[in-house]
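@channel sequence for tomorrow's demo:
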Amino acid sequence: MLRNPRLEKGRTPQSVQQLEKRIAQAVSSQEKIDLMNSLAWQLRIREPERALTLSLESMEMAKSSGTDGQTYKHGIAASLVTLSFLDGEAGNLDASIPRALDALSYLKDQAQSETLIDAWYTLGWAYYYSGNYPASLEFGLKSLKAARELGYREREAWCLDLVASIYMDPAEAVQMYRDAHDIFMGLNSIEGQSRILNNWASILMKSGEYASALEMAEKSLELAKQAGLKGDVINITATIGEIFTGMGKYEQAQLNLHNAASLFDQYGRDISSAYVLVDLGQVYLVQNNLERAEKELLNALEVAAQMKMRNEQARCHHYLSEIFEKRKRFDKALEHYKKFQSLREEIAGEGALRQLAALRVSNQVETAQRDAEIQRLQKEKLQTELDEHKRVHAILEELATRDPLTNLFNRRHFLNLAEQEWKRAIRYRHPLCALMLDVDHFKQINDQHGHASGDKALTTVANVIRSTLRSTEISGRYGGDEFIVLLPETLPENGVLVAKRISQTIKEYTISSDAGIIELTPSIGVGCMTMDDPDAPRSLNELLSHADKALYTAKNAGRGQVHLYSGRE
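C-alpha cells (generated this afternoon):
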C-alpha cells in the first residue's frame, strides 16, 4: 500500500496549496485518492462543502482503484471518515456513526495509521453529540494514545480537545486544552487555536470563572473571524451568550444567542444549533418570561429530535417541566418530566450496548488475529454491561425521585410521601407539621453573583436541612428557591423549634463569589395539624397552604424569620 500523505510524523501538515499541487501531479489513482482525502480532511472545518465534494469523488474512485480493479479499502475508509465528521458537525448523527464504523471495518486488516486515528476521533465526537459519553471517552483516549505513539502532533491536539470536552476533572481538562493550544500555536493552526479557546472558555464558564471565560471566548472569536470560519463564529457567539447567562447579564446573553440563531438561519443549521436554542430558552426561563421560554424550547426540541440529540431533548423536557410547574399546570409538568426521565434512562440503557458494538469493530482493527478470543471476551463483557445496565436502571429509579441539584426529594415524590404520612397521621391521630422555606433575596444573589453562586446557596440550604432532620422526617425542593419539610408526630411548638434550628444553622454560612460575600438567611413558615384543634387543616393541600401563608407572613415581617400559622394570615 502507498504511504498515505495526510500527515507525516513530526512534520507540519501540508498546506492546501501544497496538496492541490500534488493532486495535479499525481501519477497513480491511489496516490490521487490519498491526496484528495488529505485535502478533504484539511478543509473539513474551513470549507465543509468542498470537503464533502472531494470525499464523495475520492470514494467513487476508490471503489475500483485497488489491485486488479478491486476496491481500494484505505481510500474508502479515509473518505468515510471525513463524511462521518461532516455528518456529525451537521447534526446528522444517524449517518455519522454508521459511516465511522464502516470506515473501521475497512481498516481492520491494516496497520495503525492517521486514518484510523481520525476514525476513532470522529466516532468519539459522534458519540459525544448523541450523549454516549463512556463510548466517546473510550474512542477519544484510543485516538489520543495512537496519535502520540505515531508522533502525529496535530492529531494529538485535536484528540486532546475531544478528551478534555468529556473529562470530569476541570483542572485536568484545562491542562489538556493548554497542551493542545501550544501544539496548534507551534503549527500556526488558526482554526485549531480558535476551537480550543472556545471549548476552554466553556470549561472555565462551568467552573464559574466567567471573566476569564469571556476573555478567552473573545480571543477565539477574533481568530475565527480572521480565518473566515463562519460556523465557528456562530458557535463562539453562542458560547459568549452562555457566559453572559452565567454572569446574570441576560440582555447581553439574549443578544448573542439571538445573533447565533439568526446566523444559523442564514448559513444553515449544524450540531450546535440545538444547544443554542436550548440555551436561549433557558435564558427566558430564568427571567420568568415563560411564554417566550416555552416557544424557544419547543423549537429547540424539534431541532434536537431531528438530529437525534437525546441529551438536548432531555434538557428541553426538563425546562418545559419547570415552566408548566411555575404555571401550576402540574399535569403538563409531569408529562414533560416523565419524558425527561425516559430519555435519561434510554441513554443510560443503550449507551453500554452501543459502546460494546463499536469496540468490537475497533478491536478487530487492533487484533484481527485473535477473533476467537475477542468473541469470548465480548460475551463476558456483554453480560457485565447488562448487569451494569440493571444496576444503573435501579439507580435511575432512585434518581427519578431526587432533585438533581440538591439531591433532596423532588416535588412530585415529596408529595407522594407526604400524602402517605397524612393518611397515617389521620389514622393514628398523630400530630403533623409542615415547614415551607425559601432563601431571602435569592433573585438578587443570582443577578449580582451569578447562577453558580445561586446554586451553591441552594445546595448549602439543602445540606443544612438534610443534616438537621431525623430519618423519619421528609424534605424536598418544592421549586426554585423553595424547600419543604414534613415532620411526622410533631407538635406545633416542636415544629417551630426545628424551623428555628434550621434557620440559625443556615445563617452561620456565608458564600464567597467574585462580587463579594453572600450572607444567607431563610424565611420559614410552619403549618401544623393536631387532632384537638377544631381549625386544623382537613387535607394535605390545606396543611401546605397554611405553611405557605405563614412563610409569606415571615417574609413580610422582615425576612430571616420563623412564623407559625395562626389562622389570622
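heads up for whoever presents: Residues 411-564 form a domain with the Alpha-Beta Plaits fold (CATH 3.30.70.270).
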